[in-house]
Amino acid sequence: MIGMVYGLKPLNRSMTINRNLSLKIFFLISIFYQNIFGQDLFQLNIEHSNALQNIISSDIGIADINNDGTNDIILYGYNRIGNQEGLFLNTYSISASGNIDTLQMNLLSNYFTYIPGDHSSKYIGGDGELSLGDYDLDGKIDILAHGAEFMFLTKNLGENFSSNNYLPNEFTENIGESSLQWGDVDLDGDLDIFWMGLKNSRSTITNKLLLNKTDFDGNVNWEFDNSIVMPDLRNGSVAWNDVDLDGDLDLLASGQQLTVESGVTKLYLNDPIGRLGEDTNQEFSALKGTAICFSDLDNDADSDLIISGYSPLDSTLKTLIYINEPTGNFRLADEQLDFGTIFGSIEAIDINLDGYKDIAISGAVQHTINYDNFYIIDTLEISDQGDVLAADTTILLLNPRDSVWALEGKIFLNDGTGELEFTEHQTIEGARIIAFVDVDQNNKPDIIASGSKEIGNSDSSFVSVFLNQSEESNDKPSPPTVLESFAISNRVIFNWASGLDDISPEQSLEYNISISRLLPDNESRLLISDKVQFNESNVGTKLLREFSNIPWGNYIWKVQSIDPSGILSEWSIEKELFIPRLVKSFQSIPGYSYGISRWSDINNDDRLDLAITGNLYTGSSKTQIYLNEDGILNVDNLQPRMANVYGGHLSFVDYNNDGFLDISMTGIATVNFSTFTALLLYKYENGNYILDDDENQLSLTSGYWGGQYNHDWSDYDNDGDLDLVSGGISIFDNTNYLSVFKNEKGILSVDTMQTDLVPLFPCAAVWIDINKDNYTDLLTLGRLGTAGISHMYINDGTGKLLKSSTPPFDIPSTLHALSVGDYNSDGYDDIAIAHLNGSDMRTNIYSNIYGTTSSNEFSLHQELQGATYASLDWGDYDNDGDLDLVTSGYTGSVVTDEGQTEYNNPITNIYQQNELGEFILDSSLYMLDSVGLSSTQWGDYDNDGDLDLLLTGETEEKELITRVYENLESFTNSNSSPVKPTMLYSDVNIDSVRISWQGGIDTDNQSASGRTMEQAIKYQLQMGEDQNYSLGGNVHSIISGKYATGKMGLRSGRNHTINNIPEGRYQWRVKSIDHGLRSSEWSDWDYFYIDQTPPAVDTVQVNYSVGGQIIIIVNFEEKFEMNNSLDAEPIIYAMHPDMNDIDGDNLNDTLVVQKQSYSATVWTGLLSLPANYIGKSIKLNISNAKDMRGNVMVNSTFFKTPEKIISQNGGSVISSDGNVSILFPQNAVTEDVSISINPLTEMISLDTNSLSDFYNISPPDIDLKKPTILRIAIPDNYLIEDPNIHNLHIGKVNASTGMISPIGGSIINVNNIPYLQAQLSELGIFAAFKADSILEIDSLNTNAIMCQPRIFSPAGSVFEFPHTNILFNLSKSDNVTARIFNLSGKIKRTLKPENSLGSGSNVIVWDGKDFEGSIVPSGLYIVTLESSETILRTTVGVLNR
């Protein structure tokens, strides 16, 4: 910090001596002494000095603050005034007669400012400065002050300065030990600010570049530029100057960093404009407490550098002069001044009128860095009386700070040789600050000096006027007389010839420029103010001034000269300038013959890039990509070579829906030295365009030659992706074509459904929704035979294009250019067409009248200047909310001696739509090149809110050009973005979705106009996979959100239906597009899903509880969402797995399962088995479950048994699919066993003769005490055919070897389902088989018969078994008969299979009924089995309820 002052003891303030009077006397004695011993150039003037308050100032500002033509005085500093201590700001006027009068005093008295008591700047006027400039371009000098933990911008109100701070709080930092300067860093005419210093009560170092963003309506806005990177500095100085003469201001910063013994001096070059970067090639001495002055000391038209301050390297005060060699390279001058200051000022001005600038340096000349001393006692020896006998101490030096002891100023005269040698001429003792101004109005700079002879004593402060005593005369310089200006890109260059001076050479003159924009009603507004502080220039010595970001319109500008003594010339004669809306840019792009150029953002950096194709006269023709790199279009040299086309078209399009723009081209191409009609599709992959050579893709030879407008993309089938239409002639078969290529996941194929299409050559084709039904229709124009024709194809809603019976346009033209756009903002697309019929050229605008007539027709709206080999494009280039039209092409023709027609007289016209809907030629656009064989397109390539123009073609002089014309409309009337759409809604119907939204309306531009009508707003959609479910999903998979510049893919209306969407989850969003191609932000995402798969039963869980109740839990498999409403509930009922008639009434019985709950995919219910229900196995029938898309499940049947039912009482187990069951008779097992039947879904078929799945019945190691009966379902046809033909049987599979062991089996029909059943002696893996030959089964006991179960209950649930199985073995196929007798010998039932049974194990089932179908009474029955070889007998018991 700057520390406490150590100097002369101030006088007692109660003394009666007048210190100010004694100071004046001292100066008079000095003058008398100098008159005797040597004449000083400046002499104190008491009268003028007495007009100024004697108060030490930190800065003195000089400028014409009251606009009376003479410069005035501003004193600024920190002092005690009355009872208040703080900053002061006093202003004084100088009259034309040289009198000084008070204007305004103590302007800052209402603000709290503060400098700590131990800070030496408190006693030398403070630690801040002034910066003067017309920040708000109102033609009046404003004041920016800082220091003492304060920052204040006061506005010049004309009569006085406002006491309000015009710098908003969010852009203000209360700073001390600071430096601050105005400077137009971005060349936009208004003054920006750079500052550095301490903030936050001097605890934090800060530096900031604050940009002045005053708009062209005079509204002041501020914006911090955080791009500059520089060290944190304080206690120094900053200065702007164009050191490298490139037309923009560079910045020098010098000061102290964190430590008091540190210093930094760095130069920051402004390149590109508005971006400051350190020039590391410079070697400047590190100083702090600096004063900086840039000035041309050697009259070589560049600024040299004088810097004074404290050097931490050698602990000295020094002033260094650096010579500016060409282009801003500085070196130390050979001769240096033997004088240095800290916390002072430097001025360079010609005081002796020799044409060379002299130097005045002032500030503190005695300076030390002081510390507070702290003592640490290491050892201490004390006597008994308490006296210190000896002590060892360590001294700590803390709180270092700068201290100053004396002030002084010196004047140095330039020897005028150009060698930068200076002679000390005059000393002004006590001067903290020296400023120059012509007080007595004789064109000679006088001095205003402020300081103190005794630091710390306010009575010794002074503000004195020293008049210049030079006997030389000085006439005003003369202004430049030759002024020229021109616009390029968004910049205008103003240049002029030199002014003249009676003393100084031309190269020593500096200049001010003033530029005003003419407004309606004879008003004007400054772009560069004509008000500049004294001895400063807003241009410097250069004879030109570049102005960036200048609006179009009418201007007047003028220049004045400034001689080295600061004297201004009169202003030059005003020069007029008109800048059109569209000006040529600086982009350098080659011209192409038959060239097509197109904008689009290729690399997703939100900047429009460029592709151009055609023929180059160099012979190395190719399609070239130009990338937009910060507004500069550079060739992408890393791009692989792409073939070119001519006589055709180029489009950017994301045809493979990957979110990147691909390229399609049709026309004449030369590939591998072969020339043919081609279709070139280039996919964008990893930054490169790669030819799409997919084997399923259209081939190169699928293209046609039909002219520049021979292909177009649109989603005609409403499936989301863009389809292609193309027409013309194929060179391969010399046949004309008009084809629609349907897009299926990026693969194009001819849509053979389109049977109405009429081939044309030449052919222009464009997609257009004529009737606004959200189905894209098609217009084609061209030649059919020798006649011109136009056709209109209406989309029937299914993608079928039906040709209208009448042509849409009456003119029988053969060559066309066309562009679609809703020029009248009625929501229906209109069209502009350039026709050629023989030598008759017409360019017409046609209105779509469907909105008023409901007929698919167009009517002629307006005829424009006709052109051929033309190009058209709609765009709102003037940002007034309606569409304008650019047209280009040839307007005349001649027939050569050879009988060939040559076209000439090219034009490029822009028609501006007025309020009546009429199109008026904008004749002010004098910079546009007129071209034929042309290509035009609007696009905002510099992202400034207006449409720029891309133009390719051939001039009248046969020059091939490609030009970018920048639009300057946005500087005063930038196109505002529409509001993003809201309230998105999705309505799904099978595989289609109808999406709708609340439209995003357009907003007014800053001019309070320019809104695109709501019905004319277009929309872009994006639809793809839902990333909430698939993070890597393609969010462009259905509709790509990547759009080419222009109309492609734009949709009218606020609802659309997208068809043929695959099953899945999706997200979509939408954004609004206005007539100026300005888009809103994307809307929020909305979500939907397509579900065409019905729900299915995933699992069925059956829990058997007490009392015969069964809890049933059904879990459905549904990928999306089940419908849990009442009308979509599943219907679930139960049946007995073996007997449909449970109660014996000869009717099928069903048991209703009572629903308990149904939520999401889980349904629960309760089933109560009736008392006469036999067993616990159930067959569940489940149907009617629906999902939210209305998909209904397929009826399903499941068989369930208790998980553990097999005990000594026996029981049955059924597989979950009901195809397999196994019956355990009583006492088959000796303990409870859990039996499961599981299909082996992954088991490889071991035998091609298997008739069923393989089932694992476990556990396989169970010890069966009695045979069990296995039943396996087989296909229905085996009910009809003789089973012996196929030798049907059940086989057991060895899990280790895969060997199949036949068991045998007989067919049984249960509920019209055929089963094979056989007896088992062990469990394992089983399946049903057929065999090609008769089975040979070993180890068969053919002399035994048994019934299992031995006791069964056909009439009730005494036992679980409702039937018994008669088990026997056959050694060969045979016919058998089973008979049932009661104990009285009366036959009750005969069971005879229809067909003979096969060898092996066989089963015949008796259901306990007699011949009449009645259940036999309880009792013991005799069973006999008769075969051709034997009769076998056994018994079975019936026990009914």
Please give a structural write-up.
- The chain has 1441 residues and is mainly beta.
- The chain has five helices and 95 strands.
- Strands 35, 36, 61, 62 and 63 form a five-stranded antiparallel beta sheet that branches. A five-stranded antiparallel beta sheet has the order 78-79-82-86-85, with no helix packed on it. A five-stranded antiparallel beta sheet has the order 80-81-87-83-84, with no helix packed on it.
- A hairpin with a 2-residue loop joins β85 (1306-1310) and β86.
Keywords:
five-stranded antiparallel beta sheet; elongated; mainly beta; 1441 residues; 95 strands
Low-confidence stretches: 1-37
**Shape assignment:** elongated
Number of strands: 95
Largest sheet: 5 strands, antiparallel
Radius of gyration: 51 Å
- Please report the distance between the alpha carbons of the first and last residues: 113 Å
Q: Percentage of helical residues? A: under 10%
- Beta percentage is over 45%
Number of helices: 5
Which structural class do you get from the secondary structure elements? mainly beta
The residue-averaged pLDDT reads 90
Provide a concise account of the structure shown.
The protein has 1441 residues and is mostly beta strands. The longest helix has 19 residues, at 19-37.
What is the secondary structure topology, with strand pairs?
Blueprint: H1 19-37, E1 42-45, H2 46-50, E2 59-63, E3 72-81, E4 84-94, E5 100-104, E6 130-133, E7 142-146, E8 151-154, E9 176-183, E10 192-199, E11 204-212, E12 222-224, E13 234-241, E14 250-256, E15 264-270, E16 276-278, E17 288-295, E18 304-311, E19 316-325, E20 329-332, E21 342-349, E22 358-382, E23 388-414, E24 422-429, E25 431-437, E26 446-452, E27 461-468, E28 483-488, E29 491-496, E30 510-519, E31 523-528, E32 544-548, E33 553-562, E34 575-579, E35 582-584, E36 589-590, E37 593-600, E38 609-615, E39 624-629, E40 632-635, E41 645-653, E42 662-671, E43 674-685, E44 688-691, E45 711-714, E46 723-730, E47 735-744, E48 747-750, E49 763-768, E50 777-784, E51 787-795, E52 801-803, E53 815-821, E54 830-837, E55 840-848, H3 850-853, E56 858-864, E57 868-875, E58 884-895, E59 901-913, E60 919-921, E61 932-939, E62 948-954, E63 960-967, H4 970-973, E64 982-989, E65 992-998, E66 1018-1025, E67 1055-1058, E68 1064-1073, E69 1086-1090, E70 1096-1104, E71 1109-1117, E72 1131-1135, E73 1151-1152, E74 1154-1159, E75 1162-1168, E76 1178-1183, ...
Parallel strand pairs: 89-95
Antiparallel strand pairs: 1-27, 2-3, 3-4, 4-5, 6-7, 7-8, 9-10, 10-11, 11-12, 13-14, 14-15, 15-16, 17-18, 18-19, 19-20, 21-22, 22-23, 23-24, 25-26, 26-27, 28-29, 29-32, 30-31, 30-33, 33-34, 35-63, 36-63, 37-38, 38-39, 39-40, 41-42, 42-43, 43-44, 45-46, 46-47, 47-48, 49-50, 50-51, 51-52, 53-54, ...
